[in-house]
Design a protein that fits this description.
heterotrimer, A alpha+beta (372), B alpha/beta (157), C alpha/beta (174), A: 372 residues, alpha+beta, Cytochrome-c3 Hydrogenase, chain B, three-stranded antiparallel β-sheet, 8 strands, 48% helix, globular, C: 174 residues, alpha/beta, 4 strands
Chain lengths: 372, 157, 174
């Protein structure tokens, strides 16, 4: 148990339903809580309110037709999910990707990671009661969305990657606006730290709240910023480098205790590291084709394959069983929020209901990704 | 723990002939283990001893029955292991949720989507579909699929 | 004279008072925070600083159905979620309106295919919808256009909405 279990003072416990329609549950999550006054005795997250049947859809659609689905599973990190899917199928089918396309994919994926963390930051502080940072974050995020909209045509659910490269090439305006954006965001860190990180109320609500240590993370299979805040420097971009991440110089920020404040600091530092990667990629961007020629319908060889990428929330993996035709036989997306959400059954008992919001926000889940 | 040590630990539980090396560069796995349903708990204990975490439990439907796929991985050095358990129709598997808490939800999902029962699971109920649903959607004889094949056709040489 | 109401309204109606009330209702719509999936993010972006919904009077998103008069169904309706949506709709006090935002709420979107098992293909199968906003997801400007269309529905015409200080120009041939 991460927290000391609080013995119920009275025999009168009652059941409270939080969700599925609730402003702070980040989607349609239902928390079935057994309460003793304000303290939680048992917590049972109930999911499935956003189940859309992605995996069954994959079994009757072509590989190419599943690409829009991949973006809609986790819509905040849609490009990273896209990237993972096309890279998985390319590895299966042995398709080589030109270097310029790899750089473009990395730039767009890191920009997507920053926009996902910015949205998390705004909504987390809004859950705790501070409405102002939400507006600042969305303002910064609109910059990124404009940049990505220009090149991919979509603001949120991109289907920008294609087998063998990307759909469209970058132009000079993209590069210029990205560089301007990097400078602008760097000048904002002071604002965010002064507004939020040094705020006494925020520190009281986040420090020592929801401690998830390494042992708990191992038992529940948590990955991503939760694991890194517990002190484990496990990042798929370093552990199993994919695409061209091995060419970039970036750090993996870690925390010490694994409380909500550590998770918050890890994500803020990750945004800065993503900016570093984007800068280095823009400097080294090579010329060349942006898409390789691939057959009209991709037909990977038989067998099963797994491909892992680092999404904004943790380790994402695609497990694909192929029977040699152009339709997948079985496609499973191992999503990071599935393990991250389950840890609530262990962390919540013994805490106050108000802390639940803080813990749930700091874990950063996206419910349609859990439900698929 | 290195890959060789992990292989040694696992070969104490299953026959060494059922442990195969795979090429991580090609398909993402280092080791593959074919196990029977009753060996699953001992395998999970060995993986926990080796400081591995449970990455996912999933399943796939073939003509001879559903195949459950466990994936273990480790934080310190990537050593992704695939454990395959081929079941006959209506066979059940012991649960590993007493060893890995992550299995509680993964096994509920496999039960929900495929109908496989896990013995001694403390709370085996549906997780993604409504509670009163009476079908298991990812079985190949439900809904629209492209193909229904046997393991020989896909994994056979 | 009883006017034909498009949404449930009071039984006794006075013509001029009704018009004034409709004007007030249209320019202060209080939406319920009801994001189900991806479209929820565009709804939040429409309420944020760039595409400000507050200038139309619709910036206060109320979490409780009892305090809101507009339900924006933003996202795919899974079969498990459908009874909840109906419950929430019935908890809202009249007069109330509903916007179906996004392709999933209009007709199932990308998840509706022959043989699907998981979703309800369209919000109008379970609640009465007034305005449909297409897109996957629709841009926040699209949602704002939906709001303006709803306001015109409530006041029965853009000309009668005297509180609106701009005129919408739909430029043909663009």
């Amino acid at each position: 148990m991460a927290n000391e279990f609080l013995e119920p003072i009275t025999e009168q416990t009652f059941y409270l339903n939080m969700g599925p329609q609730h402003p702070s549950t980040h989607g349609v999550l239902r928390l079935f809580l057994k309460l003793d006054g304000e303290y939680i005795v048992e917590a049972d997250p109930i999911i499935g309110y956003g189940h859309r049947g992605h995996e069954k859809m994959a079994e009757s659609h072509l590989y190419e037709q599943f690409l829009p689905n991949s973006s809609r599973m986790d819509y905040l990190a849609g490009l990273i999910f896209n990237h993972g899917y096309v890279a998985a199928v390319e590895k299966m089918a042995g398709i080589a990707v030109p270097p310029r396309a790899e750089y473009i994919r990395v730039i767009c994926a890191e920009l997507n990671r920053i926009s996902s963390h910015l949205l998390w930051f705004g909504t987390y502080i809004m859950d705790l009661g501070g409405f102002t940072p939400f507006l600042y974050c969305f303002d910064d995020r609109e910059n990124i969305l404009d940049i990505l909209d220009r090149v991919s045509g979509s603001r949120l659910t991109y289907s920008y990657c294609r087998f063998g490269g990307v759909a469209r090439d970058l132009d000079d305006e993209f590069i210029e606006s990205t560089r301007k954006f990097i400078d602008r965001l760097r000048s904002r860190w002071n604002d965010y730290h002064n507004l939020v990180t040094k705020n006494v109320i925020f520190i009281h609500r986040a420090k020592d709240v929801g401690v998830i240590n390494r042992e708990l993370a191992l038992r529940f299979g948590c990955t991503g910023p939760i694991l890194r805040a517990a002190g484990v420097a496990y990042d798929i971009r370093r552990a199993e480098p994919y695409s061209i991440y091995s060419e970039f110089d970036f750090e993996i920020p870690t925390g010490t205790t694994g409380d909500a404040l550590d998770r918050y600091m890890v994500r803020l530092q990750e945004m800065e590291q993503s900016l570093r990667i984007v800068e280095q990629a823009l400097d080294k961007l090579p010329e060349g084709p942006f898409r390789a020629a691939v057959p009209h319908k991709v037909r990977p060889p038989k067998g099963d394959y797994y491909f892992a990428v680092e999404s904004a929330r943790g380790a994402l993996g695609y497990y694909i069983v192929s029977d040699g035709t152009s339709y997948p036989y079985r496609l499973k997306a191992r999503v990071p929020s599935y393990g991250n959400l389950q840890v609530l059954t262990d962390v919540l008992p013994g805490t106050l209901v108000a802390d639940t919001i803080s813990i749930l926000g700091s874990i950063d889940i996206v419910v349609p990704e859990v439900d698929r | 723990m290195s890959l060789e040590d992990l292989k040694e630990e696992l070969s104490k539980v299953v026959e060494p002939a059922n442990i195969r090396s795979r090429q991580h560069e090609k398909d993402g796995f280092f080791l593959e283990v074919e196990a029977k349903a009753k060996e699953v708990e001992a395998l999970a204990k060995a993986a926990l001893e080796a400081d591995c975490f449970l990455e996912s439990i999933t399943a796939a439907d073939f003509t001879e029955g559903v195949q459950i796929i466990y994936q273990f991985n480790s934080f310190s050095s990537v050593s992704r292991t695939l454990v395959r358990v081929q079941l006959a129709r209506d066979e059940s598997v012991p649960t590993i949720s007493s060893i890995y808490d992550a299995a509680l939800w993964y096994e509920r999902e496999v039960f929900d989507l495929y109908g496989i029962r896990f013995d001694n699971h403390p709370d085996l109920r549906r997780i993604l579909l409504p509670e009163d649903a009476d079908f298991h959607p990812l079985l190949k004889d439900y809904g629209k699929v492209h193909a229904f094949r046997s393991t020989e056709e896909i994994y056979g040489e | 004279m009883a006017e034909k109401e498009l949404a449930p309204g009071p039984r006794i109606q006075f013509a001029v008072v009704e018009e004034i009330l409709n004007l007030c209702r249209a320019n202060s719509l209080w939406p319920m925070t009801f994001g189900l999936a991806c479209c929820a993010i565009e709804m939040m972006a429409a309420g944020a600083s760039r595409f400000d919904l507050d200038r139309f009077g619709a910036g206060v998103f109320r979490p409780s159905p009892r305090q809101s008069d507009l339900m924006i169904v933003a996202g795919t309706i899974a079969k498990k979620m459908a009874p909840t949506i109906v419950t929430l709709w019935e908890q809202m006090p009249a007069p109330k309106w509903c916007i179906a935002m996004g392709n999933c709420a209009i007709s199932g979107g990308p998840f509706e295919y022959d043989g699907q098992y998981a979703i309800v293909p369209g919000a109008d199968l379970i609640v009465p919808v007034d305005v449909y906003v297409p897109g996957c997801p629709p841009r926040p400007e699209g949602l704002i256009q939906g709001f303006l269309a709803l306001e015109d529905l409530i006041t029965k015409g853009e000309k009668r909405n005297v509180l609106r200080r701009f005129k919408r120009r739909i430029v043909k041939g663009r």
